[in-house]
Each structure stands twice: as structure tokens, then as C-alpha cells.
Amino acid sequence: MTANDLVKLSAVELRRRIGAKQISPVELLDACIAQIEAVNPAVNAICATDFDRARDQAKRDEQAVMDGEELGLLHGLPCGVKDLDATGGLRTTLGSPLHKDDVPTEDSFMVSQVRGAGANLFCKTNTPEFGAGSNTRNPVWGATGNPFDATKTAGGSSGGSAAALACDMMPIATGSDTGGSLRNPAAWCGVVGYRATPGVVPNDKPAFGWSPLSVVGAMGRTVEDMCLLLSSQVGAASADPLSRGLFPEDVLNLAQVDLGSLRVAFSADQGFAPVEDSYRPVFERKIAAIRGFFRSCDEATPEPGGLDRAFDVIRGLGYAQRYKAQYEADKMKLGPNVRANYELAASMSLADVAWAHGEHTAHYRRYAKFLEEFDLFITLITPMSPFPWETLAPMEMNGQKFDKYYTWMGTAYGVTMSAHPAIALPCGVDQNGMPFGFQMVGRYGMDEELLAAAHALEQAMAANPETARAVPDFAKLREPVPALKSIVTDPPSD
């Protein structure tokens, strides 16, 4: 088997073959590194690396297999880690010049879980500065191009992970999500991203541990691959007050689902979000292609209430807490998105916060009530085809101007505010030949139920070219795209 053949295998199959002594962790790592060296110059998805250290780890992993040791769930699998999560001994920049040379001494809790399950954490994946934005670009590493057209964005903020997976640089990768950061790049790169019920994947990063807004999680090229990584991340942790006791077997052994028994609702815009006029027909075409799988598939949506403003306020609390000192000391060391977030937060009152928390709770209850009538809710993640990476964010749509850089992502943060789990599923291509994906939302705390349904739907969609996962043209990914690094102004010192 060639290295090119090896990197195309699923994470589940790779792990099986490692355990069966059919492939070596060293062989697999070398194949992934070769793929990065061949393809990454075209998309700039990978940032910090330590291949020498990773090769040493792969040799130890190989020896453990040969010695018949007990192997972890991810033993020997190369894994990319989003550059927002601390990786002990591997540079973690957060995409910010303030941290461009930081090398943590310890892993974040999520990373420690993944490493403890046997994954070989051989590289970091690119992200916007501090994860602020749905376009992966920063002054430390540059921009990440879309594997289907490097002049377009890969999305964000987990854009590096999504692009790397689409390019077969690794079988699994981590991500995180506040307003769509796992789901948006998954949709635009043709991979799977999962925003679990808050607490399913413990998160020790947020200062406001009681907030359900920000989650960490898993990405993969298929639902099964993503679940394999997710199985190492789930569980309870004292550092996260929302963490809950989901077990690895809960996401590894998915139940068989009869799609024909499910009642499904769908909506392009959830009753409030902007959607580009040319994109609505794409969503409608995809719904038409899959609606026959279900018992029923009806256009319906929970009432949105005042969630736009509530999201501004709830999201703003984190920015006010985290960036106040730096903003007051020297705000120009923060990028434009982070400055805009802080300034919006600083303009809010205690009365705003009280109202927003009430509306946040009401929005959750509307979703919970809605999903008593329906088993699943399918809606857009992104409201448009990928835009040029040079554009920081779309500031108007269909003639409507936006006053915030993230307003265009209402389709994603509308689901975030519900606190319900959501999975991004690839579904063919859009009107421009770019990857298309939708999100499927399940009942709060019923992650196993949602994942099982997603796996069944993924298998059903694979038989139809209209809905099967799209794969990039690798022949076009052999030419470097230097422009992606043209915005680098503060590279790492060495």
C-alpha cells in the first residue's frame, strides 16, 4: 500500500490495522507528514509542528503494538490540534502576536484526554486570532485556503483542522465552537464537525464555566471517525461545572436507526437569520434529495425571539472578562475582530446582561418544546458559498448591511444559543462547486441519539452524487499558494 493510499483510509480502519499489526504507526505518521509537505503549501492549514518528537512517539507506539501492550482508543493515530488548545511541548500561538512564541508546559484537559488515548499530536492547525471569526486568518501564520479553491476561505475558527482533514493530512483533528466554529468550516470543507451538548466534552478553558456557549470537540471525515475521536474526549471533569458522564462506548457503539421512523423539521434561516438569495435553492435542492428517507419532513422552526441581541450580550461577557486588561494597556495589539467584540461588550449594562440571560433560557426552552414534536431539526450552517479569504467577514447580504462582523452567521449561532447538540454533515456541493453541508440538531443531552441518526443519514446520502461527500481535486493542490502567507506580519521567532 502506498503512502497516498494509506492517508485516504478512515481513522477507524487505520486504528484497526494498527491493532492487527497490519500497518505501523511509524509508517502512518510518515505518510501523513509526506501529505502535509506535498499539500499544505496550497492551503496553509498546518502551523506549528514537531515531527521529530512525533516520530519518536510513533516508534514507541510501534513497539507497544509489537509487545502486545494494551492499546488506547486512538493508539498511533496522528491527530492535529486546533491552535487555541494548549499542547505541552508544542507551540500554541492562538493566532496572536502576543503568544507567537508560547510553548505550554502542560496540555489543556481535552488535549490530555486525546493524548492519553494514544493519539500522536504531531501538529497544530490554523485558526483566526483568539478564534474570533469564521475566516481562518491571522498575522502569525497567515490565511487557510479552501481545499476546493484556495482563493476562498476554509471557514473558521476551526478552519485549519477542517482543511487538513479534507486534504487527507491526518485522520482526526480537534476543534472548538462558540458561534459555529466547528460546524462552519466542516460545511465549507466537506467534513464532519460536532458541537455536543455543553459538558459532554469537558472544557477547562472558559473563565465563565457555567456558560454553555463555548465547547470543544471533534472533527473527522466521517461520522464514525469523528466519534472515534469524540470517544476519547467525553467524560466528567472537576474543572468544568457543566461536565456530564457520557462514556466512550456511548459514542463508539452507535445504535441502528430506521430513518423512516423519524419526524424531521427543516428551515433555511430559522426564522431570523440572513441567507443569501442564491443559497436558498441549494438548501431546498438538498432537502428534496433527502426528505424521502424520513417518516415526515416538514418546514418548521422554533420562534427566534430576541436571540440576536442575546447572543451579542452573552458572547460579550467572555470578551469583557478576557481582554479588558490588554485592551486598556494597548488595544492595537489585538486584532480588529477582538477589539470589536470587546468594545461591544464594554457598551453593555447589567440590565442588558439580566435580560440576555432570561432570553437565553427562553430560547433553550423553545427548542426543547419544538423537539418534542420533531425528532430532528435540519438547517443551514452557513448562509452562503465560501467567500474570498481576503475578506475579513461579509458585511452585507442581499442588500442588507450588517453592523457586526458575525451577524451573517446567525444560522450557526441560533443553534448555539439553544444549547442543543448539532452535527455538520457534508452533502455534495453548492451552486459554485464548493462543498455544502447542513447541520442536524438533536434533543438536549441526547447526543447518542443524534449521532446514530447522523451516521444512518450519512450512509444513505453516500449513494447519491447530489448528497455524497465531496473530495477535493488533489492534482490542483500540488501548487503552492504564497498569497496565503502574504498577511503574516508577526511570524514566530524561530
CATH architectural name: Alpha-Beta Complex
Give helix % range.
25-40%
Gross geometry: globular
Widest sheet: strand order? 1-3-2-8-10-9-16-17-13-11-12
CATH superfamily grouping: Amidase signature (AS) domain
Task: Kindly describe this structure.
This protein is of the alpha+beta class and 494 residues long. The protein is built from 15 helices and 17 strands. It has one domain (3-485): Amidase signature (AS) domain (Amidase signature (AS) enzymes, Alpha-Beta Complex). Helices cover 37% and strands 15% of the residues. Strand 6 (145-146) and strand 7 form a beta hairpin. The longest helix has 24 residues, at 307-330. The mean pLDDT is 96.
Short descriptors:
single chain, 494 residues, alpha+beta, Amidase signature (AS) enzymes, two-stranded antiparallel ribbon, globular
Write the topology of this structure.
Blueprint: H1 3-8, H2 11-19, H3 25-43, E1 46-49, H4 51-66, E2 78-82, H5 109-116, E3 120-125, E4 137-138, E5 142-143, E6 145-146, E7 149-153, H6 159-166, E8 172-177, H7 183-189, E9 192-195, E10 215-220, H8 223-233, H9 248-252, E11 263-267, H10 280-290, E12 296-299, H11 307-330, H12 336-346, H13 350-373, E13 376-380, E14 396-397, E15 400-401, H14 410-416, E16 422-429, E17 435-441, H15 447-461
Parallel strand pairs: 2-3, 2-8, 11-12, 11-13
Antiparallel strand pairs: 1-3, 4-5, 6-7, 8-10, 9-10, 9-16, 13-17, 14-15, 16-17
